[in-house]
Amino acid sequence: MKSIIPLLFIILTGCSSMSVFQSPGVLPKGKTETGIGASFIGDEDEFYFVNLEVHTRRGLGKNWEAGAKLFGLPALSGGVMGEIKYQLLAQPFLVSADLGASCLLTQDLNYFEGYPMLIFGSDRIYGGYRGIFRNAADDDLKLDLNYYLHGIFIGGKTGTGLYLRPEIHYYFRDIEKGYIIFGLGLQFK
């Protein structure tokens, strides 16, 4: 329990987008996918709610896709994120690189985050690496915080039309300390 308190504080004071809710494939040009999702931190004994998000993705052309997310707990704080994905391989399995950036402005601090990600697998089962690099500063730039997490994840998609995306993430700052994040998304095309 005590080990989760610092992560909860960081997330809830400036929510990060903790789950991916996408596969390595890109949408065809002009097609969109929209959904909602929730993320939870797992502990030995229980789960803690982290945030909600609304997300949409759109195919831009051959191998390119763009997305946007609104995330957080509106009563506390929330952010906006944009990302671009490029599909590197289609055979023998899908591989994509994704880069996201988010911004969150609160009364106390301004947060800026970068999210590099590598996703591989298929449209139904996927996994990969994701980093979260955060910089936060007050308006006078007297307080400057830098924080980073690296993580691996696995997820899936079940259903057609309206479908679920369950995910499990393991984020860590160093070799000895990690956090398990569970995500559940509901999406439609």
Molecular structure report:
By secondary structure, this protein is mainly beta. It has one domain (5-188): Porin. Helix content is 5%, strand content 66%. The protein has a ten-stranded antiparallel beta barrel with strand order 1-2-3-4-5-6-7-8-9-10. It is globular, with a radius of gyration of 16 Å. The N and C termini lie far apart (39 Å).
The fraction of residues assigned to DSSP E strands is over 45%
The class by helix and strand makeup works out as mainly beta
Largest sheet: 10 strands, antiparallel, barrel
**What is the CATH T-level topology?**
Porin
* Strand numbers in spatial order across the main sheet: 1-2-3-4-5-6-7-8-9-10
SSE string: HEEEEEEEEEE
Q: Which word captures the global form?
A: globular
What is the element layout, followed by pairings?
Elements (H helix, E strand, L loop, with lengths): L4 H9 L18 E11 L4 E15 L2 E10 L3 E13 L4 E12 L4 E12 L3 E13 L6 E13 L5 E13 L2 E12 L1
Antiparallel strand pairs: 1-2, 1-10, 2-3, 3-4, 4-5, 5-6, 6-7, 7-8, 8-9, 9-10
Short description:
By secondary structure, the chain is mainly beta. The chain is built from one helix and ten strands, in the order αββββββββββ. It has one helix spanning 5-13, and strands spanning 32-42, 47-61, 64-73, 77-89, 94-105, 110-121, 125-137, 144-156, 162-174, 177-188.
